[in-house]
Every structure is written in C-alpha cells, then in structure tokens.
Amino acid sequence: MEEVLPNIYLVDTLSYVEKGTISSYILNFDTGVIIDPGTAKGASILLDEIRRIRLEDKIKYIAPTHIHIDHGGGAATLAKALNAKILVHPKGAKHVINPEKLWIASKQVLGELAEIYGKPESIEENKVIVVDDLQKFDLGDDILVVYHAPGHAPHMLAYYLQRTRILFPADAVGMYYNGMVFPLTPPPFDRDLAINTLKRLLELEVKYIGFTHFGLVEGNWTIKKSYEKIILWSKIAEEVANENKDLNEFIKRLCDADPEVKELIKGFSEKPIMQGFIYTAASGLLSWAKR
Known about the structure:
The protein has helices at residues 43-52, 75-82, 93-97, 100-110, 112-117, 191-202, 221-242, 247-257, 259-267, 272-289; strands at 2-5, 8-12, 23-27, 32-35, 59-63, 85-88, 128-130, 136-138, 143-148, 157-161, 166-168, 175-177, 180-182, 208-211, 215-218.
C-alpha cells in the first residue's frame, strides 16, 4: 500500500497473481470510501491494509466504477466485512445483488482468468445504493461526485473529488502504463457514448487521475489522449471492417499507425493480464466497426 496523495492510498489488489495491474483506492476522509475494490480474491488484501491502518470503522461506501469482476468483484465481500454500502449504476444493481448471471458471463468471456479473479459474493438489496448522475456524497473533507460514464460499459461510473480535483474514471479513460495511455474498448463497445463521456470528463478541472489499470497520473492529458486514440483507431477499424479483414490485420495496422500499441504489447510480455486487455479492446472496436 502507498499513500499517493494526502489521505489517498493505493493498494495493488491483484498482486497475488500479477503486480501493477489493479489499483484500488482508499479515501481516508471523515467518511471513508473504497474506489474500485478489485477482484473477489483480492478483497482480503484490501481488507488487511484497511485494518492495518485502522480504518475499518471509517469506510462507509464501496464504490466500484462498474460491475466487471476485476473492478467490482470484491465489493460485496468488503461491504459485509466493513458494514458499508455499495454504490452502483442503475443498470448494474441487479448483478451486484445477485451476481450469478454476471459470473456465468464472466467465465464465458474470461475463461480461466475468471477463476483467478474469483466469484463475487451476493449481497442484500438494502446494502446497495443506486446512484444518479451527478449525485454527491459529503465525505467531510471533500465531496465525491458520481458521473454516469457509459461507453466501455453501459453501467460505467466515474468518481470525482470536488475539492482536491481527483478523478477516478477507470476504464472510461483506459489504462495507463509507463507514460502511455491505452483506451479500453471491449465488446460490446459503444464508440459514440465513449467519446461523449471523454468530452464530458475533459470539462472537469482535474489535477490527478487515479487509474485502476494502473496508478495515479498528474493532469488530465490522458483523457485527451484517449479521445484522440479512439478517433484514430475507430477510423482504422472501419477500414479493416470494410475490407473484411480480421483482428490480426487490425492490430497490425494499429501498431503501424500508433507506435505505442506495439510498445505496450511488447512491454506487457511478462504481464499477460494487461496484455490481454489490449487484444480484448481491439476486438471490441473491430466489432463496433462491423456492426
């Protein structure tokens, strides 16, 4: 665990299998919050750190950005252990309460990786708060503002600390690694919604972005970069789709047009989960182009 900013802690919650892949954030304010609790199997790592710094009585909200099991898989486990409530988009609430269908779909999409992440626990409906767009939570030392942020997923949320101007957009902006940003566009991806979300996030005054994949980055330049990449990549995807070419050809053209793609694929040679995000994102964008 690292205190990346005053009262903001980053916990590497996938360290049990691949370090530097999933960041969970603890907001140590008068009312404590966990942003993106991560996987079900990683929940114990987060819980141990919370207890180590004696915050178990302060955490009132578990705030996954979306219900994908690498982000929200541990939400119910933590909510039960800490007597906290889970914040969730209206379109994701039923899958947090009863994750059976989510788990079946996750195994179909992720294969053995789903087992590495772990099966999410179910939770009582009264432990879930369905959040509106622009809903605010007074944390005492700051205000947490919820933004509906569809595109990566229809049930996507972004969280913004109003006073300290820290944004936690997770996959709405993409993933960050070694000075590079990579949009995350898995199927079923909605390009237009994703672009509109990025435009909206660009309007915020942002000092730092807390990525789930992975780490804290100063400024908002990654939002603009993600926007530019999605515009470029979607044009390439449409060209590939019109020529009836396959995913391999699309990735080849992405590497030719954007050297960072090739660099990230190479850089993730020893990080298979992060590398897998790249291929899943390419698949989603090409599927969008072939719609």
